[in-house]
Hints:
With about 130 residues, the chain is mostly helical. The chain is about 75% helix and about 0% strand. It has one domain (about 25-125): 3 helical TM bundles of succinate and fumarate reductases, CATH 1.20.1300. The termini are far apart.
Amino acid sequence: MADVTPGERPLSPHLSIYRPQLTSITSIVNRLTGISLLLAAFLIVWWLLAAATSPAAYDLANGVITSMLGDLVMALSVWAIWYHYLAGMRHLYFDAGNGLEIETAEKLGWAVIIGSVVLALLTLIIIQ
């Protein structure tokens, strides 16, 4: 066995030498959008429970959700829904053994990013 001291070599791939790829970034953002959608769902459930509880509770929850920050959170949630959906479809495509070539995977990554922005903007325009 080779005589190597573990403290002398960086872990592979080390963050100081690793260049993030589009496919890894889109995968990480997919996980982050899943978490953020869960938090947005909790906010909507709070609003619904407040509506069922009392007028004072509803006024508070409605004030938070319809505030400028609440509008921003809901608009970003619309984007997160589309991104998470498209990235999930991309992962299913990969799981079937398709699109695993680097060029195709990068094109699909850009399709998820651009598609989610376009679909979110269309959704926000339609619901306004």
